[in-house]
Amino acid sequence: MDEFDLIDDILAILGDVATGTQVLLGPGDDCAVTRVPVGKAVASSIDTLVADVHFPARAAPELIGYRAMAVNLSDLAAMGAEPAYALLALTLPEADSGWTKQFALGVARCCREYSCSLVGGNLARGPLNITVSVHGLCGNHFLSRSGAQPGDVICVTGPLGAASQALEHPALEQQACIDDLITLAPADARYPLRRYYLPEPKLAVGKALVEIANAAIDLSDGLAADLTHVCRASGVGAELNSESIPIWQKGTLETALGAGDDYELCLSIPEEKIADAVLAARKQGGDLMPVGVIRSDPHIFLKRQGSIEEIPPEGYQHFR
Amino acid sequence: MDEFDLIDDILAILGDVATGTQVLLGPGDDCAVTRVPVGKAVASSIDTLVADVHFPARAAPELIGYRAMAVNLSDLAAMGAEPAYALLALTLPEADSGWTKQFALGVARCCREYSCSLVGGNLARGPLNITVSVHGLCGNHFLSRSGAQPGDVICVTGPLGAASQALEHPALEQQACIDDLITLAPADARYPLRRYYLPEPKLAVGKALVEIANAAIDLSDGLAADLTHVCRASGVGAELNSESIPIWQKGTLETALGAGDDYELCLSIPEEKIADAVLAARKQGGDLMPVGVIRSDPHIFLKRQGSIEEIPPEGYQHFR
User: Which CATH number fits domain A3-138: 3.90.550.10, 2.60.40.60, 3.30.1330.10, 3.30.70.660?
Assistant: First the structure.
């Protein structure tokens, strides 16, 4: 089993995922070549998952593969862009064919679900590390972090605080495959595993709100930290209302604010467009829940039981 | 010093490298957004450099940064594509501001030299790993590995076998910066360091030959192994002539054939277009040296002192 055998295994599993109507040349050459429709711009992001930093190394490789793709696609959702193609670099300690095939199955499943072609990759020997570069299409209008305006309503697309519990309770991290997890209901004790390993990039909602929202970000580090990014980029502040923050039924306000990995969107929407926005989201099967307002004072406050406190950006920082 | 301080350091060093006329949104958001000119396709590649697998971890970070960008740009050269933008994911064990700044200087220098914008990135904690995703522009015609035809002349763009000597002689791996190395002449004992850390992606030559050559690859794994990729993809074989292979003046035929990291191009060119090809390469300040011919018999032979032997694809394989 050498490098090229592993690559053949991966390509066999990818199958049609490596192709696409806009893909002129898929994996196997020095570069892939893709066509970009006239009038479209390309939104691009790169994101790394390091073993035992961003996921437990002992997790099922299928789940690791799915998660690696999904968290990257979530960056496209935050721009209101539509997935087009991705490239994946996998560094792994040894040529483990079984592991690699399961990993590829997870990657392929997520790509297929969100119509993203996987057009190229790289395989290297070293400590387990997965880096994905995703590329989506958008028009001249796209969502960014920097457009939030005082008076905007801050909304999130779903309940927060479940995903992080997958890591807080190691007993939950037992081996499980995608089919075990994908139908788990919020009341299930293992639901955090579903949220952590199978995040749902809010691509349809992001795209539906691209002309409506003033700003957006995906919630990878927690609402407090990610909203801070939006506020800093926009030169504004925010006031969150603790009572309207949707919290996973077994979670707490603290995990909803401070813990990450939920991959819901947080959007800043002009007050007069809220009704349109909710309808547009619902049309895509999505939800939109107001959690606060943008203020000009550049701090983030939390209204809680009648009092107001300033909250620090407590998100996960990799080097702290 | 946390993640965001490091990112600020890097962005300050990148300066104008993070911008570009086609860059609608640079680093700092969920995605970068770039415009693609009408009629152009995007050539994309991803490549990882793992510490102590693809470079000595103790090397000067400036050299590591330059090399990481240059070897990726070389993939664009092999397609005849023109650099447009790149994304870089850096995983490093600790928040070392000095290291990171020097690394960013090397990256920026290479990007500036080859007019590639660095529009996005990712910073994570973990074992040192650098993954770059590069994106270039090409027309409907681009070079690939699969177009070689029997009778084509196989050419390389420069002398082979020096770069790998940088690793064979550990005494040569002392700390050195870009300015120390970039002017070293082939006769200098430290020349392999220049070739290894500051490879010169043959972008101008690749682009000049995009309508002339039938196939191309960049020489990362050594002539024997990389030519094997071209032959397999094209369903052909090759006959190399040992006497015409350009070897670095202190190198051997063995290192020219079997060792990698030279990042010259290997092109398959129709015999009747060789004169045109040489002129087109020279116009770009480049060279083109015939080293053999493509044959229909799917093996690679070496003509050496009157006899012919089959050579195995001896390139470096990561998991062997």
Answer: 3.30.1330.10
B225 burial level (CB within 10 Å; 0-12, 13-18, 19+): buried
Is A57 touching B (CB cutoff 8 A)?
no
Give the strands of the sheet with A300-304, arranged side by side. Answer: A215-218, A265-269, A153-156, A289-295, A237-241, A300-304, A307-310
Asked if B300 reaches chain A (Cβ–Cβ under 8 Å), the answer is no
**pLDDT under 70: residue ranges of chain A:** 1, 169-174, 313-320
Query: What are the tens digits of pLDDT across the range A119-172?
Result: 999 999 999 999 999 999 999 899 999 999 999 999 999 999 999 998 876 666
- What pLDDT is attached to residue B316? 45
Tens of pLDDT, residues A279-300: 999 999 999 999 999 999 999 9
Q: How far apart are the first and last CA of chain B?
A: 40
B135/A131 Cβ within 8 A:
no
Q: Among A25, A146, A320, select the one facing B144 at the smallest CB separation.
A: A25
Q: Kindly state the tokens that stand for B83.
A: 């650099």
pTM greater than 0.80 (yes/no)? yes
Any idea how long chain A is? 320
Average pLDDT, chain A: 93
Q: Residues of B with CB below 8 A from A3's CB?
A: 317-320
Q: Does A28 touch chain B (CB under 8 A)?
A: yes
Contacts of B196 (CB under 8 A, 6+ apart): B67, B163, B164, B166, B167, B261
Domain A153-310 has CATH 3.40.50.970: no
From CA A21, how far away is CA A286, in angstroms rounded?
Answer: 28
B38 near A CB under 8 A: yes
CB atoms within 10 A of CB B146: 17
- In chain B (320 residues long), the average pLDDT of successive 10-residue segments reads 83 95 95 96 97 91 97 98 98 93 97 98 96 96 97 97 83 76 92 95 98 98 94 97 94 89 97 98 97 96 91 55
Would B3-138 and B153-310 be classified into the same CATH topology? no
B297 in reach of chain A (CB within 8 A): no
Q: Look at B123 and A47 and tell me if their CB atoms are within 8 Å.
A: no
Q: Which residue in B3, B50, B218 is closest to A30 by CB distance? A: B218
Sorted by where each begins, the domain ranges of chain B are 3-138, 153-310
The helix (run of H) or strand (run of E) holding residue A49 is strand A41-50
